[in-house]
Amino acid sequence: MSNFAIIRLGKDSVADIKTLDALHKSPAAPVKFTVHCKQVPNELEAGNYVFICFGSDNSQGSPTDWVRGVRALGTIESKTGGPGYNDAWNVSVEIKVILPQSVVRRDLLAHASTAYFWCSGVPTIGIEANSQQTIQMIKQDEPDQNVAALAYALAAHSPVFKTDTIKAYPALKDLFDFRPPSPVGPPTTGASGGANLKVEDFQELLKKFVADSSEAGLLFAPRIFHSVAASLLAKKFLILTGLAGSGKTKLAQAFAQWITPQPVKCYELIPVGADWTGSENVLGYPDGLRPPKFKSDGSVEEIGSYITKPALV
Known about the structure:
Number of domains: 3
Strand order of the largest sheet: 2-5-4-3-1-6
Strand content: 15-25%
Number of helices: 9
Number of strands: 8
Largest sheet: 6 strands, mixed
Shape: elongated
Distance between the termini: 35 Å
Radius of gyration: 27 Å
Helix content: 25-40%
């Protein structure tokens, strides 16, 4: 996992703030500068990613010539000085991604309130960000310091942030796969709880399905597998459309069989005609000649048998 930090530029970095503030898009050539400060986290090291925030140039609460907030993304080039935590340090930074304008808390709340919940503990931009340290690490093991949630929120406000970040730092592409789950309600599992599945877990699930399908001779574009899995995690109902013979039935059957604990069969394939317009072919219909009998091909009985096996539903 990549480490991320926050640098809040203040009164000792006015020239650097003005340089960045004059830019309203990511530069063709990286912008480099050095931050001189104390109390630099021991775990900060070259190669770490860093969000740049504009702070104040005064301690009286007076207005600044710039809007205070998140403005750029870069990397740490070097860290010299010290060696003690309270000694003077020189931290060199390279910036490749610059937002069109500073993004403040209310922007994150307006454009991505749910995502902001998951990054509301990030230093400087969080709800209770009171520390005055110039450089702070984002503690990604804390549930409210989710870097992917912050990236999602910034991209929701400024879509160019996503494209510029992926172009400048391809290794961060997976950050933007994050979709913020609701922070309220009991935790759930299974298809109805897909929002709580971690991005990395979903990716591993998808890779396994693609690999197993390929080994079995079932070849589809990975994006098809991704769409099917993501749709079923979001809701337990899915309609596949396409030309006859394109593999819709085989894909559904393969996925159902793949998630079934072997050797138990927990799915049923029910064929219907191309003129299917109602539920009669699936659920059956009342027998008008012999009421109250019900005409069915056995599908209802199959569904009922699965309902009586809660461990397999």
